[in-house]
């Protein structure tokens, strides 16, 4: 499976919003699905760097966003049919100076699959808290010195 990691064009934004909506509704089953809206993507990614993973056939398999000022990976969403195929790993590799730079993210406790993915990539739980979607853990990737 080959994917190309690139920054989105304006014409990709609708499809990224579709992925964001669809994956949240599929994954966060403990949250009322009507709380998630298509326009959330534009609002939730303002000021963030965005990368997408595009398959050879032009399909967008997933995307990642980074709030660069805090080295905070805000979103990493993969279409269901592309999970387990290296897309998330390829997106993480697009982070500036990965894997020699420290990054943080939040992962909902109920999202066990995502947490297992991050832990297997070298992230460690460093704190936690509550959000409108439920309890979360902050995970940090701190490369060896």
Low-confidence stretches: none
How would a crystallographer describe the biggest sheet?
A: 7 strands, mixed
| CATH fold group | Aminopeptidase
* Beginning-to-end CA distance, first to last residue: 32 Å
Oligomer: single chain
Number of strands: 7
SSE pattern: EHHEEEHEHEE
Question: What is the gyration radius calculated from CA atoms?
Answer: 15 Å
Which percent bin holds the helix content? 10-25%
Written description of the protein model:
With 145 residues, this protein is α+β, with helices and mostly antiparallel strands. It is built from four helices and seven strands. The longest helix has 15 residues.
Topology, please?
Layout: E1 3-6, H1 13-27, H2 40-44, E2 49-55, E3 60-67, E4 72-78, H3 87-93, E5 103-108, H4 112-120, E6 123-131, E7 134-141
Parallel strand pairs: 4-5
Antiparallel strand pairs: 1-2, 2-3, 3-4, 5-7, 6-7
Give a quick set of tags describing it:
globular, 25% helix, 145 residues, seven-stranded mixed sheet, Aminopeptidase, alpha+beta
Summed up:
The protein is α+β, with helices and mostly antiparallel strands. It is about 25% helix and about 35% strand. It starts with a strand and ends with a strand.
